[in-house]
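Example record used in the benchmark description.
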Amino acid sequence: MIAIASAGPCFAQVERQGETFKLHNIFSRGMVLQRDKPIKVWGWAKPGEKVTVTLGQESAEATAAGAAPVEVFGCTNDYKGLGKWEIELAPREASSEPIHLIATSGGEKVTLDNILIGDVWVMHGQSNMAFPAGKANTSDLLPQANLPLLRLYSITGNEQATLQDDIRPEAITTEGGWVISSPETARDFSAIGYVFGLNVQRTLQIPIGVIKTARGGASIESMVPAHKFDEHPLAKRYAEHVRKQMAEFDPEAEADRMWANAKARAKRKNQPEPERPDPKNLRSWNVPGKSPSDMASVHNGMFGVFKGYNIKGVLFHQGYNNTIGGNFWPKRYRVLMKLMVEGWREDFNDPELPVGVIGFCADGKGAQYSENFEVQGTANAPFIRESQRLGLDDVGDPVNTVFIPAYDIQSQGLHPGQKREHGWRSAKWALGKIYGVKGVRWIEPIKLVSAGAHGDVMVLGFDMRVQPDDGSGMPRGFSIAGEDGKYYMAHARYAEYGKEHMWTHGARSIQVWSPMVEKPVAVRYGWGVAPMGNLYVAGQQDQPFPSFRTDNWDPPESEDPAEKADDDRKQRKEDAEARLAARRTKEASMGEEFVTRLDKLSVPIVPLEDAAQKGMK
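Model output (structure tokens):
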């Protein structure tokens, strides 16, 4: 069984909650309501009581339903005996003129002021999405944060085993509700969210609301709505595994186990013996179904908890936790990415809800270069990036979704401080593609349209120009393998068809070669934690070309979620070190022959008429 919190009152009441009449905690003074969609307002009151809600000059009435349990972890007594009510108001255009919301029932009254109508975006993911603006390279943008039309709302640490009906007040970290952007309020807010909101609001000149729902250490499994898991065999098997763990869980036994470990640690450090953990309020990581690693837990308490509050779109930035040990399931990740986006669209009743996925960021400590190329190429990271991109592709909506690679921003640590770039790129996509702002250029994704071996060279063809953003003529970041699946760092050059064909053929064919592979069959690009790779879509520095591979050599992954993959990480590293040494020795021994071969690598192999060219699909 699952540990249940004691049914005590919440530690604090907020402005929109009286004794017997309450608004959902997503509503507060200073909020932004989504334009051009119906405006729903809901809460709880005494059963049968009439509720009147007035927003500006428009009013609507509802009657509270019969009393029913309300899921709000640790706060159940606050809602005891109350029934749900809900009203709906007509859609409105964007407006920067503040209005009031007044709700009354049974002699109780709630008044919320300074409400705006505009667009609401959700920032979802794990700690790199939550990372605060004041601690990133966004800190020097904080003096620009005095933006009355940019409003911020933050939920943190509210993962739950069941879908919640309301947000615990202590989980709302922006002063208990919506706040106006300022250097002080933006400082602790999501760096990516702040930069995104800053640029979108100043460009559109309408109110923008940004809701941060990121949870540090969360896996994608925790962010998929619970009702989606049974829609795919891989996801369903995983869900059944978690449900079994939930059913068998004994909080008393877990409390004893945690206590024993804590006492042992205290004894080693000559510290006082700690108290026994409360079985009814265990750390979420220790509770199956509630852990941020388990299915739907973060969605239950941090995103799905306010469905009904219409939004414009979602930005998602996550991935690290799914590259680690027992969380590394790339095939399942791809499935869950699709289910997650579809679930959000169902929850918020918008089949075309815009979703931008920022590929998980690069830890610069794992930077890949010539002297460690093969070793860094064994990382789990690129498989998860691939699953993010392909899972989003599987949604089948390229108009309203985008995968934004982030591997090229390489500062060190699990929480790289470079966040400004991710926020700006996301804003640029939204402004260019979702809002259609004239003058904001966001280019459609480039496609690999051909890949074939010609002797000991692999020739890659693209439907658009793919170029380094520094204007150099030397693509980097490729590896090549034969049928044995052993990848070596490769050298690449553009096939030069002459200046007269630059417009139609320029920077569309890349020829890849390594002296270690006589008969190549596959190529990878940008394959590492912080990979070598310098290609951008048409040379645009805001659009890195995504990492990719032409092989189907997947890492070991069992379909049984209880079975760990048979993967010898140590052996993989040793094999890669041997390949690295062999490649460096071979290239050094070739001398002038090596240089000559590189010089000839730009001579076109594929005839002009068959080569990748403008208009090719």
